[in-house]
Write a structure and sequence with these properties.
Layout (H helix, E strand, L loop, with lengths): L19 H18 L3 H14 L4 H14 L2 H14 L4 H13 L3 H14 L4 H11 L1
Helix pairs in contact: 1-2, 1-3, 2-3, 3-4, 3-5, 4-5, 5-6, 6-7
Length: 138
């Protein structure tokens, strides 16, 4: 699972579309997500960390690096990044799904189910979130 393509531009403090900072962020983010999808964790971590450093108010970098850490079993780092993404985008279904995965990994199944239910409510077409919810409550 990847939260790839989850970009939120236009909020206060984010770079203007087409600006040099925007272009640099998008390049780092896209390389990071591609490396995450290709299972090249070092490249993913380097680029997602760079993207976060460029635009720390953008939840996508935090969410995807949190997913990387979750996949690597680095739960403290995953929790930090996923919690930061959740603070920045508390209603985003992609982020709620990650919070649910993190809770599941910690063995907190009721909390996982709660976040996954919210993710499905906000995006009823997310088959993966529905499947994860079914796994947690089964």
């Amino acid at each position: 699972m990847a939260v790839a393509g989850y970009l939120v531009w236009g909020r206060a403090g984010l770079p203007a579309f087409g600006s040099a900072l925007y272009e640099e962020y998008v390049e780092a983010f896209q390389v990071g997500v591609a490396a995450l999808d290709a299972d090249v964790p070092q490249v993913a971590e380097e680029n997602l960390t760079r993207a976060i450093g460029l635009v720390p108010k953008e939840p996508a970098g935090w969410a995807d690096r949190g997913l990387l850490y979750l996949r690597m079993g680095r739960l403290p780092e995953a929790a930090n990044d996923i919690e930061q993404a959740h603070r920045l985008a508390p209603d985003a279904p992609e982020v709620l799904k990650l919070v649910g995965l993190l809770e599941q990994r910690h063995g907190r199944f009721d909390e996982a189910a709660e976040h996954l239910r919210l993710a499905v409510e906000r995006d009823p077409y997310d088959i993966e979130a529905m499947f994860l919810l079914a796994q947690v409550v089964a």
